[in-house]
Design brief:
By secondary structure, the chain is an alpha/beta fold. The protein folds into two domains: 120 residues, Periplasmic binding protein-like II (D-Maltodextrin-Binding Protein, domain 2), CATH 3.40.190.10; 96 residues, Periplasmic binding protein-like II (D-Maltodextrin-Binding Protein, domain 2). The protein is built from ten helices and twelve strands. The strands form four sheets. It has a five-stranded mixed sheet, with helices on both faces. It has a three-stranded parallel sheet with strand order 4-1-5. The radius of gyration is 30 Å and the shape is globular.
Length: 275
């Protein structure tokens, strides 16, 4: 009888051990993320849904590329090109007027889908953004007060030079500041740069040639340009690297179409640029 009880006890103990092993072993696969990790990033490659409205960031004032006209409408080369390309390709968009530096940050944070703001395509920016084909080639040039005697970079020694923060003009000025002995002062926007130079706060400034030439011609600024264009670089439409590839494809296709139709040349001529 005792042996039978021992056998029953042993069988019961073995059954309980097996049950505990089964319960303890089942959660293990859930702690291994390798099976579920792969699909997580696949959504980034999915094309935009039909009817999507893209949020496009831009600068506040960078005439003739973007600015407000007398009626308060936001116009300029960038605005007209984007409108023509969107109509050609059939996509919807909404403009976010943020300022240049804020536009860069907005695209980086995912709050904007793209950016068009007279933005130079550089190797450094390519590390963070994907660019369209170039729609304009622009260079930087020095500007001074209308009655200034400054005639070259050598005349800037010991003086201050105004630039707009985050721009190619700022990068260029900083690249030659040590060589010519001047100090670079940054401002939030282009009008502040013009006011600083025209008001004698800073001895000179650097700006995109097309922009300052347009401003001097149309706004009667007490400024003049000195020397030749430097550091000529292409301008492009940008998205965050690896994001919204279809937006770049549509921009490129639309740009090619409006170039072929002559609409591109008409837009550029409207703002005093011959192509």
């Amino acid at each position: 009888m005792k042996s039978i009880k021992k056998l029953l006890a042993l069988a019961l103990a073995l059954a309980m051990t097996a049950a505990l092993a089964a319960c303890g072993g089942s959660p293990a696969p859930a702690e291994t993320p390798s099976d579920s990790a792969a699909p997580a990033g696949s959504a980034a490659d999915t094309p935009a849904a039909p009817g999507k409205t893209y949020l496009i960031a831009t600068d506040t004032t960078f005439a003739p590329f973007e600015f407000q006209d007398a009626q308060g409408n936001f116009v300029g080369i960038d605005m007209d090109l984007l409108k023509a390309i969107a109509e050609d390709q059939g996509f919807q968009y909404e403009i976010q007027v943020l300022g240049f530096d804020a536009s860069l940050q907005s695209v980086q944070s995912g709050q904007s889908d793209g950016m068009i703001a007279g933005m130079s395509i550089t190797d450094e920016r390519r590390e963070s953004y994907d660019f369209s084909d170039s729609y304009y080639d622009g260079g930087q040039i020095m500007l001074v007060k209308g009655d200034s005697t400054i005639a070259s970079y050598e005349d800037l020694a010991g003086l201050t030079v105004a630039v707009k923060t985050g721009t190619q003009s700022a990068t260029f000025a900083q690249s030659i500041a040590e060589e010519y002995g001047f100090e670079v002062v940054t401002y939030k926007d282009s009008p502040a740069v013009y006011a600083a130079v025209a008001g004698g706060i800073d001895a000179a400034g650097f700006e995109d040639y097309a922009v300052i030439a347009y401003q001097i011609q149309n706004q009667s600024l007490d400024l003049k340009v000195v020397g030749e264009q430097e550091n000529i670089t292409p301008y492009g439409f940008a998205v965050l690297k690896g994001q919204n590839p279809e937006l770049i494809e549509m921009f490129n296709a639309g740009l090619a179409n409006i170039r072929e139709s002559g609409q591109y040349a008409e837009i550029m001529a409207k703002y005093g640029i011959e192509v």
